[in-house]
Amino acid sequence: MPNASPKDLLRRCAVPLLALLLGGCSTLDYYAHLGQGQWQLLHARQPVERLLDDSATDPDLARRLKLSQQARDFASASLQLPENRSYRLYADLERPFVVWNVFATPEFSLDPELHCFPIAGCVAYRGYYQQGRARGAAALLRQQGLDTYIGGVEAYSTLGWFDDPLLNTMLRWSDERFIAVIFHELAHQQYYLPGDTAFNESFATFVEREGLRQWHAARGETPPASDDRQRQQFIELVLASRERLQQLYASDLPVSDMRAAKHAEFERLRRDYRALRQREWRGQGRYDAWIESPLNNAKLLPFGLYDQWVPAFAALFTREGRDWRAFYAAVAALGRLPEANRRAALEGLMQTN
């Protein structure tokens, strides 16, 4: 990063420190990996303005970057999201994902193996900047008898610690999704509650969806046709399977019988999906590859987290007069409640939506 300012140099030095803070009780090798991966990402950043001024910039990239800056301006001016250099920069990492997250559960449980960090709190995964490292970590977990799943991630937020860039990994999305993720990740910078993934992701998902609605309204546009119905039906299918597995794992079946019943449940999930695809989706399913690849407990972990409390946040937004600043203050107030009280408050809001 040529001509770095003192602030930039200080942040360079902060990368290994951040890795230590995020790494918890992991190995020194993992600390080094986190620091190197974050530094490489920061080093690859270029100002979007410079790329837009460069006639050699690919026209399609220039169009997407211009759109991103319009959305970035809207996010701060209209949604009252943080005004900083995040998403005013672009980085081409020359790979399909920025990180690969490894999820793990016991063989007969849907409770994740948690990783607790001072900044982010406890999360249900561990991230790796290199796919090979993620595969190696998953292999070691499987040797311990755990179910594992590796999920590629196109974008993430450093919660305002650094100026997060737009990434080449985001460009394969539609314009709608591209803008949505900018709103979503900035929402994490606006408010983040360590240790409560469902709260954080539901909050950011609400901001993303309401932000998109307001974005289209401000531009006099008709929102594009949504595939939310197919997505919601798929999530409901998976959550129903999770509920049956929960009941199975709470039973006192012998291990061999439970293992057979677990396998049968995943086969039922596949059959139910195929029937739904033919009955409701005219034989066209977005999730064919997911359902036909190996299934286990760990693969089910992400479902429900991004949507669980979205109706509650929608009700809260209405209660606060659809005023973003008042809404964010109310979200922060919820976050200060003890966990049981916070959950009760969210459930109460769900009833009013």
Automatic annotation (TrEMBL):
Keywords: Aminopeptidase, Hydrolase, Protease. InterPro entries: Aminopept. One of its GO terms (molecular function) is aminopeptidase activity. Pfam families: Aminopep. This is Predicted aminopeptidase. It comes from Ectopseudomonas toyotomiensis. The lineage of its organism: Bacteria, Pseudomonadati, Pseudomonadota, Gammaproteobacteria, Pseudomonadales.
